[in-house]
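Posting for a labmate who doesn't have an account.
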Amino acid sequence: MPRPLSRTAIRAAVPALAAGLVALGAAAPGRAAEGDPAMTFTIGQYKEGPSTEVEPFGEFSEQPIQGHNVSGRTLKNVKVTMDLTALKGQLAVTNQSLCTQPRELVEACTYGEALKPGDSYGVAALVFEVLPGARPGFSGEISVSAEAQGVSLGTTKLTVTMADKSVLIDRTGQVPPGDPVKPGGTVRPLAGFTNFSSRPVRDVYVRLRLTPSLSFAREYSNCEYGLDDKHPAMSCHIAQNVEPGAAYDLDLGPLRLTDSALSESWYGDIFVDESAYERSKPTSSHRGSGPELTAVPRASGPTIPGHALLSGSVVADNTLDFEAVGATLDGKAGQVVTAHLGARNKGPATIKNWTGSEPGDEPTSEVRVVTPPGTTVMKAPANCREDGSSERYYCWEPEAEDYFLAGKLTPFDFDLRIDKPSALAPGKITLSHGKEDLNKKNDIAPIIVTVDGKLGDGSAPSAGGTGGTGSAAGGATATPGTGDSSASPGTGGSGTASGGTGTGSMAATGAGALPWYAAGAGVALAVGAGLFTLARRRRTARA
């Protein structure tokens, strides 16, 4: 019969078991006090361990502390005390768990449930905030001790280190802060940084990208100016010594609002990675002709870094006019005719197509089409879908385009088959939009399909709305019919439907198949489709 293990042997085996668990992937506890602890502790948001690093702003600021029963017995009513006094003056600490504070920077937390051998639980969720004047690279210990029923369960030392991050943005925004600015006026972006590091920096790089209706009103000789995906952009190299812990401000120059400005913004970065600077240079660029851009030491000293990017926005005192473009068509029973419908931004302002986080999210304008009774939709645009029935459609701006430029026409071509001449009646295209469009009178336009110039009730269509053009679908032959007979398109020749009449700048000409959108293309402007893509801070570059 095997001899039972002695208590001494069992106690000796517990640390070995814990070490085995660590080797198998369990979180390594912090440095424990002398003896054989029954409880150990770890810290970390995504990776638990004996130490953690606190970012100087927001990211990774919450650091949970976990308790682990490494004894061979069940523990009850565990009381944990966390001594954070070593962090005083460097980090402010908030505990989001239900604990008491016997004194400043000391937290006491009680766990009333039974904690079985090998069990772990969340002791506290600590949120760290960097204090003004904090020392980059600072490291301090949190002493975490546990007891149950007056018996010590051990003490663990956890290390908290403040990240050494190099250049960090601590000032952004704009002047004026929010009042509407008239087109032709200017707004000044704010930019500043702190060298949140124990090491000096020699070269600092800046980049800024604008929405299309902003331009740079001043240039600097150490900056390149051009386009970044069709957006105005600048990229600058400041060859200047930046001292550890010092704060600096940058005057990037005023930004001018063009005639098409409405709701504008800019995004940028301040960084020290030369390779990122080379990649960020705008295309079709030129060197600025003005003075040199320099970093000016801030007299008031550093502030707590709190911004990942340079950013700002301005609202222009401007309006726009959306216009629905309808069509008037004439054909024969069974013939397929094409209605060149659309939406036009008559300006003067350009507007973003989307205000959501992804293309297509929260559109600034919407188009709804009701096709004429007596017709059947044979083909609808790719950027339209049925809206409750086969006669109603919801349409949107192309998702590849960020902006609805002033003067731009967006076509929505519908192929319609004339099935029931006696039922023909006007349809409509309707635009809905935001408060910037003050002219509501041209937001609805008729879609009229006739046979021999007559609607289903025998009347001629009345003039009104904004007319488009129409044509027979290419390669289709209309088969004549009488009354309500439905004739199918045949093969062979090509049919044409005469354009009807309409009012507005794109009234039908009555001459065949010239799509209005071909004319509109002559005034359409190119638009940048990408969202502002800035390379995120490379943490390794800050090290």
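Reply:
Got it, the structure tokens are right above this. The first strand starts at residue 31 and ends at 32.
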